[in-house]
Design brief:
Blueprint: H1 4-12, E1 25-26, E2 28-31, E3 46-51, E4 56-62, E5 67-72, E6 77-82, E7 86-91, E8 109-114, E9 119-124, E10 129-134, E11 140-144, E12 146-147, E13 150-151, E14 158-160, E15 166-170, E16 190-194, E17 202-205, E18 211-216, E19 222-227, E20 234-239, E21 251-255, H2 257-261, E22 271-273, E23 279-283, E24 286-290, E25 296-301, E26 308-312, E27 317-322, E28 325-330
Antiparallel strand pairs: 1-3, 2-25, 3-28, 4-5, 5-6, 6-7, 8-9, 9-10, 10-11, 12-13, 14-15, 15-16, 16-17, 18-19, 19-20, 20-21, 22-23, 23-24, 24-25, 26-27, 27-28
């Protein structure tokens, strides 16, 4: 069975994939709908800001310190990038400490987000847990590592609601044999929620084959989840009740089957939602910018698979982790 990272690595090596250095520009922006002009100028350059990673993931902007944190999952490092300083290790190891057991293929942290002003929340793939890290001291606390007595598979991405409720995905990508791994204790790949202290863990959805990227709508009445399965490459919207619980079945929001068939680099992966409700979704070909109704407005392409993205610099920039590099493009809103 071909694992997602192997598939993406192959696609990222397509002949048109650029080799760039920090400060150089790559790729292009394509407009499908005039509404895109409210969000981004198609002439905006896509600037490479850091290179040399095994698989860059999970970016988050720390406004208070004016820096970007992002994961290199296979290298087991979280890096910090700051203008004028470049990228330097911030957490090493970022995930699993000590010898890496047989059967673990991604020992590092994956998706990152901020939980308060001075706290990082991470989906720790290697430790198979959701963890909190104090930015000042870098002290790490495990919030949850199991569901009903069974260990998580390999936590992948995480989002947090304004009231503190944490949502996260748990596919098997961190396990060498995926679903067939003898380390896998759960019979499904789930989407979960819990309170900010790790209590009240509840299963939101268990029917998606490869739940991956996760984000909330501005009203927090929808939970977007990417399914990184080449056989079902869709983004779903899960309706939420006022208390944050799921109500009803996941609703298909965007389908990227045609892009997979064209062998464009990437799969539905990380995604972020702007305050206006527009969805910036990493998918085959790059980052698809979608209206709140799912209409395709445009595409940001670097020429390589893009795993995740985040808003930063007072919302005026979009940072993208793209295979072995990190890139930035300016936004209008």
């Amino acid at each position: 069975m071909m694992m997602r990272r192997e598939l993406l690595a192959g696609l990222a090596a397509l002949p048109f994939a650029p080799r760039a250095a920090p400060g150089e520009t790559v790729g292009s922006i394509t407009r499908f709908d005039p509404e895109l002009d409210e969000l981004i100028d198609v002439a905006s350059p896509i600037e490479v800001i850091a290179v040399g990673f095994r698989w860059a993931e999970g970016p988050v902007w720390v406004e208070r310190g004016k820096y970007l944190l992002f994961s290199d999952v296979p290298a087991n490092i979280v890096y910090r990038w700051k203008a004028g300083e470049g990228a330097r290790p911030f957490l090493d190891p970022s995930g699993l400490s000590g010898p890496i057991p047989a059967g673990i293929r991604e020992a590092g942290a994956n998706g990152l987000t901020l939980d308060g002003r001075d706290t990082l929340l991470m989906a720790d793939s290697g430790t198979r847990a959701i963890a909190r890290v104090e930015l000042a001291t870098r002290r790490k606390t495990i919030l949850a590592d199991s569901y009903r007595g069974r260990r998580f598979n390999s936590c992948n991405d995480v989002a947090i609601a304004r009231g503190g409720t944490i949502y996260f995905t748990d596919p098997p990508y961190g396990l060498s044999a995926g679903d067939a791994s003898p380390l896998k204790e759960l019979g499904f790949n789930g989407v979960y929620r819990m309170r900010s202290d790790g209590s009240g863990l509840a299963l939101v959805e268990r029917r998606l084959t490869r739940p991956n990227g996760i984000a909330l709508s501005p009203a927090e009445d929808r939970l977007y989840v990417s399914n990184s399965d080449p056989a079902d490459p869709r983004i779903f919207a899960c309706p939420l009740a006022p208390d944050g619980s799921a109500v009803g079945d996941p609703v298909p929001f965007a389908d990227f089957s045609a892009e997979v068939a064209r062998k464009l680099p990437g799969l539905p992966d990380g995604l972020k939602v702007s305050p206006s409700g527009h969805v910036f979704a990493t998918s085959p070909g790059g980052i698809h910018i979608l209206s709140p109704q799912g209409r395709r407005l445009g595409l940001i392409a670097t020429g390589k698979a893009i795993a995740n993205c985040c808003f930063g610099e007072n919302g005026r920039s979009l940072f993208m982790t793209s295979s072995d590099m990190v890139a930035r493009v300016r936004l209008r809103a």
